[in-house]
């Protein structure tokens, strides 16, 4: 009966792409693109359609993330039967064939939109796609200790920032490279939070994470420097004239970086937000604030100058 209920199936398709997690590429990429637009003094105005560039570019990155989410649920169905049996594939609301079709449609749609931007942007999407495929498809990097953290952080942090900046500017300049590196380091530590709820299921299905190998507290100790020190070092990068002075306020994001660590140590799997932990929610919120703050500070700096 569940399988033939149209509303349950619609909700199943929505749950398959995990829409909350799509906010990250939408918000972060839009913020980085706006910063790039103002920083590079691009000769486009509101009337000539700069949003017509930002929207398809940010949506393409979000759709790529949705495709990755779907593919990951397909390949993680045995683990989800243990830790997240309420998801649409374990419940049989969506079939595996339908899920593969959703992933394929979203991958193709992401590239159709990307072609509207320019070849370098498409190139970055190809790199990100390569990471998502090798993360999920067997033999996969998701099962390999430490490398699984890198395979999440590199495409969602470093490559995502560079792809967004290249829409309007040169992504190989110091500012986007450093901001991308900060995002990369933060997500190396922060992505550990997603493994807390899945610890037992991952271990039973052969996925080796820091959480199920060393425990939550030791994993938190590993993640802490990555979430704290990239922000602390921002004043040094400003002193070296690699970042503009206006970005010194980003240093204060070391505080929520510590809060993620605190939630991991003290809440563990007890603090819940949506289908994950409070540490995971704080990590996502910190990443949103990082991208939006960088964008606002860069825009204000560009307008004032």
Please explain how this structure is put together.
This protein is mainly α and 305 residues long. It has helices at 6-17, 23-39, 51-75, 77-83, 88-91, 96-114, 119-136, 147-165, 174-190, 199-204, 210-214, 216-232, 234-239, 254-267, 278-304, and strands spanning 272-273, 276-277. It has one domain (2-304): Orthogonal Bundle (Farnesyl Diphosphate Synthase), CATH 1.10.600. It is built from 15 helices and 2 strands. The N and C termini lie far apart (63 Å). The relative contact order is 0.12. The model has no long low-confidence stretch (mean pLDDT 90).
Mean pLDDT: 90
From the alpha-carbon coordinates, what is the Rg to the nearest angstrom? 19 Å
Element-level helix/strand string: HHHHHHHHHHHHHHEEH
**N- and C-termini, Cα separation:** 63 Å
Q: Any idea of the CATH class?
A: Mainly Alpha
The CATH architecture assignment turns out to be Orthogonal Bundle
> What kind of assembly state do the chains in view correspond to?
single chain
Percent of residues in helices: 55-70%
Major sheet? 2 strands, antiparallel
Q: What class would the helix/strand composition place it in?
A: mainly alpha
Low-confidence stretches: none
Query: What is CATH's topology name?
Result: Farnesyl Diphosphate Synthase
* Total tally of structural domains: 1
